[in-house]
Amino acid sequence: MNAENLANIPWMLISTALVLFMTPALALFYGGMSRQKSVLNMMMMSFGSLGVVTVVYVLWGWSMSYGDQSVLGIFGNPFEYFGLRNTIGTADAPIMSSFGYPKVIEVGYQLTFAVIACALISGALADRVKFGTWLVFTGLWSTFVYFPLVHMVWGGGFLSEKAESLSGWMFGRDGEEAAVPPVDFAGGIAIHISAGTAALLLAICVGRRHTFLKTAHRPHNLPFVMLGAALLWFGWFGFNGGSAHSASWLAGLATLNTTCAAAAGILGWLLAEKLRDGHATSLGAASGIVAGLVSITPAAGVLNPVTSLVLGFIGGILAALGVALKFRFKFDDSLDVVGVHLVAGIWGTIGLALLADHIGLFMGGGWYGLKLLIVQIVVAAATMLYTGVLTAIIGWILEKVMGWRVDRAIEHGGIDAHVHGETAYDALGMEGK
């Protein structure tokens, strides 16, 4: 192993820790946005995802995501590397990844992505679902939706291959040089669009809270929300910077672009909020951070700091406007997963085709930029279709077998006390409020 590859090892280990840290940070972010009587349940949904998805990823998730034996280009053979056999090697004879460092590091890094992708969905289901059903859902959704999507987008599978082939004959320009592969630097397609689409379908499948549109559902702890957003921002450096798979200039660019987009996302959200509601709120600032981060995720390695500011600013505005969709169409996306992750994820995926250095349509990309724009739209739409159909099927099966909703009395009294046997604020005598 050469000196350059040795230098990459600590960066990837740090990035793995940062991305893993994002799931507890998400628990804090979602927990603060929840009602006081269900904050622990909301946080437990993130921690539950951490438990279930880690287990299934080690057993068959890696094999389905990055296995060499592709099944119809949709997923890898789950038995090829089941339990990580023939995957990580030993200390004396490590199996190396294509990035030049031991594959065991890459497995750990990709595992953390699988966990956070599933945990994001939980924000659409606050106050009303059975914890056991949620745990089963995390295992099924990861297996039938996330792992295949990773294989199709990042593992050389169906979506990546077909999108590139599509671009090869666009506008009568055939040949390899004319082919344009889709771009998803760190997970705008595989994570945010898929999680946002799943959140939308589950919110519809599970149904609305009994008090939705009748009672205001305000965050019970805004300092939690702001702290959670700050910790997500911190973890996102591993999310985007680590996706360079090296301690390199590209990692530096991705981390700088991440900061720029998040900061601009704050300003975009606050501007939209001020013009619409007359107030620039702390919840808006925290949500704007996440919207900016989601927007830059697919584009962190192909934009520059200035275009990242543009992407994040517009992402903040669009996400702020997107959260109103649930009121217009009356689906109960409790903590705005659709508005933030789906809307900003789509914008980042498509926006990079406009703003990417040298290849973006607005950055001198010409025919290549136009092809890239079409490819990005097609892949985003295909991801939504695949995720939506599979999520609806999984949701329907679980409804029939286990049921999604807690009893109305439990929803009213609070899931924390009835399901988990504890409350967040016992010492203050505030149970049930």
TrEMBL record:
It is a multi-pass membrane protein. The chain crosses the membrane at residues 12-30, 42-62, 107-126, 133-154, 185-207, 219-237, 249-271, 283-300, 306-325, 337-361, 373-398. GO terms for cellular component: plasma membrane. PANTHER family: AMMONIUM TRANSPORTER MEP2 (PTHR43029:SF10). Belongs to the ammonia transporter channel (TC 1.A.11.2) family. NCBIfam families: amt (TIGR00836). This is Ammonium transporter. It comes from Corynebacterium epidermidicanis.
